[in-house]
Amino acid sequence: LVYSWVTVDQELSLFHDCPPKLAIGDLDTAMPDLDILWHATTAEEWSRGFEEIYGSTQPIIQNPPSLSDLFRRFMNGQSCEPRLGLSPTQLRLLLHPLQALVCHLHQCVSCFFDGGNHRQAQRLISQLEEAQNLLQQWYALSSRSEQKHNTFSPVTCANLVIYHLISLNTVTCFSELERLARGEVTHETFRQSFWARARCVEEAAQIWFHCGQVIRLVRLMPEQNKPPWWAAAIYRVALIMWATSIANNKTQTPSSHKSIPPLDENNFAIDGLVPEHTSIVRYLRYREGVPMLSKRDGTVVSLTASQDVLGHCLDVLNEEESTMRMTEGIKARLARMFERWRT
Questions:
Q1: CA–CA distance, 64 with 253 (Å, rounded to integer)
Q2: Does the structure show a pLDDT above 90 at 20?
Q3: DSSP code per residue over 133-169
Q4: Residue (of 155, 163, 154, 288) closest to 213 by Cα position
Q5: What's the number of CA atoms in the CB half-sphere (13 Å) around residue 299?
Q6: Confidence at residue 62, expressed as pLDDT on a 0 to 100 scale
Q7: pTM of the shown model
Q8: With 0-12 CB in 10 A as exposed, 13-18 as middle and 19+ as buried, what is 137?
Q9: What element of type H or E holds 118?
């Protein structure tokens, strides 16, 4: 029950852009064991799962660590992987304190830049970059665990979406992007802001990468296994890509009607390839290649045309038929934004 609330706290924090309510120091209850035991519905099913994992002659098994213990070992660079690796649920929980760290640093950066203390803000930017490294270490843990269990579960897929969204929070300020979307600031004023100049421009490659991976992973999720917040994830990347396009293209037209070359060795679908693909690795390391967004029919969308990016994300939302009120509300909101910025 404790860690069910941790999951809810994380989702509310992430999608409402507010700090988590639960402190890592208070989370000293043993975490759930491997998911086959955590999801067992009867004692018999649990017993069979336990024997399958540990064997019938296995000596007494120690309780899993608490989230506080796991995070402490993770931050100290100590091994926090049991013999069978961390379960998808345990990996999901480990993202909670990492998200809290990013949220705290994010708020401090905004405070010092708004207050004019740019030197202190630059120190905090360095700490945000360290948080990015911690997130990459989490990704490495997740990849090793996936290889040990030889499975890619819906929980793992949702974990990776959240990982990419938290990573985006290290290089963007979503509340500022919403102000731009509502028309409260002009494009030129936004381009002069700290988050546009120092992050959306300098970290554009990272932004395109993480946004593309969110779209790819959401498309991979079977409809019955999509989390309730999947549409909110697409909405976030829609605004982030739209604003990043505006920040990086001062003379662009909102919608590009010129012919776009097909995918080849130079042009690649950043929302269709795994992070380890050669094209993505080359792009992130050497800025080689031109990232594109891919449609179901094989056509592509340029990331330099902000209006086309919005339309693409709206198409992704409409690929799934959903009766959830939240999903329908997000579709309507993005559709209104698309029409408002149409030229």
A1: 55
A2: yes
A3: HHHHHHHHHHHHHHHHHT---HHHHHHHHHHHHHHHH
A4: 163
A5: 8
A6: 64
A7: 0.90
A8: middle
A9: helix 118-149
